[in-house]
Amino acid sequence: MSEMNFSASKMFGNANRFIEAYHRTLHPLCLETGIPPMALDILLFVANNPENATANDIYRCRGLKPGIVSVHVDRLVNCGLLTREEVPGDRRKTLLVCTDKAAGTVAKGREYQHLFAARLLSGLSEDDIAAFRRTLSHIDANIDGIRKSGI
User: DSSP label at 52?
Assistant: First the structure.
């Protein structure tokens, strides 16, 4: 294995900077709608992942604490942007669904997400992007292995 010039601390730092930059990108929409960045992130997650839109999916996929998700989901439900629906075949689960009222915010949020991704990849060649995707896929598989059985 080749020597690595970065540590877990550096990786965490990059992940945090990524989230900060993402929320900075969404900031104009947060100001326009009055929705906090984390709540907007949850709304967009639900809109972009309707097949995996339970609170548990949000905890697992977004790495957020259950209490934080609960607070923001309640806010989004109270604002009329999300509804809670029973999952067919499993009444213990509650599916989160975007309402018609959320459509405009979701459309604008997706535009910001697209701009964010384009800005992150700006200056990279198609080969660089392909290598990056392969690398992320491999890292994702390694993360899954670590989560299952440890190092």
Answer: G
Question: Is the Cα dihedral 119, 120, 126, 128 positive or negative?
Answer: positive
Tokens linked to 27: 């900031």
**Consecutive 10-residue runs of the chain (151 residues): their mean pLDDT?**
67 89 96 95 95 89 90 96 89 92 98 96 96 93 88 83
pLDDT of residue 1: 46
The distance from CA 66 to its chain's CA centroid, rounded to whole angstroms, is 15
- Measured on CA atoms in the order 147, 84, 72, 38, is the torsion positive or negative? positive
Cβ proximity of 47 and 102 under 8 Å: yes
pTM for the structure as a whole: 0.85
Half-sphere exposure of 31 (CA within 13 A, CB side): 5
